[in-house]
Amino acid sequence: METTQQQAGQPATAERRRRELLEAADRVVLRDGPKASMNAIAAEAGITKPILYRHFGDKAGLYQALAVRHTDALLESLRAALDAPAERRRRVENTLDTYLAAIEARPQVYRFLMHPAEDSHAAERGFDVGLHSAPLLRRLGEELAKVIAERVDLGPGGDELARVWGHGIVGMMHAAGDWWLGERPCARAALVSGLTDLLWGRLGTAGNLAGGPGF
Amino acid sequence: METTQQQAGQPATAERRRRELLEAADRVVLRDGPKASMNAIAAEAGITKPILYRHFGDKAGLYQALAVRHTDALLESLRAALDAPAERRRRVENTLDTYLAAIEARPQVYRFLMHPAEDSHAAERGFDVGLHSAPLLRRLGEELAKVIAERVDLGPGGDELARVWGHGIVGMMHAAGDWWLGERPCARAALVSGLTDLLWGRLGTAGNLAGGPGF
DNA sequence: CAGCACACGTTACTAGCGGTAACTTCGACC
DNA sequence: GGTCGAAGTTACCGCTAGTAACGTGTGCTG
């Protein structure tokens, strides 16, 4: 670690450096989960903390930059599934499956995205409830809402309803996926078809169980 | 803060003290949100940190004790809504509305329940993804699954499907509620009926929007 | 070439966190 | 009276996020 470490050089180093740092941070987060500390990230990048702070402001900034990258990637694949030519139910199934495959393949990333530190001295006096939930969820909800609103005929007030549905469906997908990832109670395909059945109203049409109190 | 502060006394002080501490912690969490520190809680209770640790082991222990209390209370009211005599759709609407009313009335508590510190040196080596989600969500999901499984006829494999639905529905409720609480885009009743429509399969039956790419 | 400016990097620090060790003090019981 | 144990304290550890102050190399400009 002598002072003669960087060969310096290119003037466009700024953006480059930023991406290098992000990739180092990525590695650490992938390895250590959400407990990744700024010190650890700096060490992985071969530098020290203040540089991180110069580039990203604070931890929330770094995390957000990381989250945006991953969220973008996930969103892109989800949009592809949502846009593929198929009947509506098939599209929904494919989208759910894409999401589940993603969180299954890289659970650490998923976990990180859902738990953005949350500290961030926001919440100062007046605790703005609401924005506590992971940005990923909000973004996915809004994106899905947009797709629904522009493609499905929901009558008057449809935009508002589409947003309700967007956030609701995303939440369903998230919670079920989280539970499934933890307990692995069934195959991915079974989860997908179960959720799609739910969305297709099977709860409303299924009969009461004989002998029970009814529902 | 002289040493002659507590009048001591009763031998059954242990349980009493524990409840006093929990109530103090409750007050602090209600005031400071999830950033409530052990120091602050101890101060509010009029004592110092080590006592808290003697009673609850660590922060996670205290938080869990707090969470159990609130979760129990919420669960009870939800169960009441779920058991009230009415047709199925009405029960679902009432349950959703009960949940939303609860988080609307005490958003700080809600926020605390959804963010159980998460630190807890679990996640050691092997980051057990999955259990990161708030215990409240898991518990609600399992409870709902139980209700569904014992009342609705879902055919073979129904128990597994019920769990999928339980967690899915709870997730939907949570995410939509979180979003709604943050943006307040509509009245509570509108959100409830929108979500119920979703659960009753309106997404499957709604027509495509004329002129769009179809969905 | 001198010198200025600036980005890049460092060491060394603060304030606060969760958690603990060691000591004191009080009340009960034999 | 003397001892035992719970309740409570102060003072600390190791860690975190974040910052201030101090080099050091490079390119531009007089």
From TrEMBL, chains A, B:
Domain of life: Bacteria
Keyword Transmembrane helix attached: no
InterPro entries hit by this protein: DNA-bd_HTH_TetR-type_CS, Homeodomain-like_sf, HTH-type_TetR-like_transc_reg, HTH_TetR, Tet_transcr_reg_TetR-rel_C_sf, TetR_C_32
Residues of the HTH tetR-type domain: 15-74
Alphabetized UniProt keyword annotations: DNA-binding
DNA-binding span(s): 37-56
Keyword DNA-binding assigned: yes
PANTHER family (alphabetical): HTH-TYPE TRANSCRIPTIONAL REGULATOR RUTR, TRANSCRIPTIONAL REGULATORY PROTEIN (PROBABLY TETR-FAMILY)-RELATED
Name the UniProt record assigns to this protein: TetR/AcrR family transcriptional regulator
Source organism: Streptomyces antimicrobicus
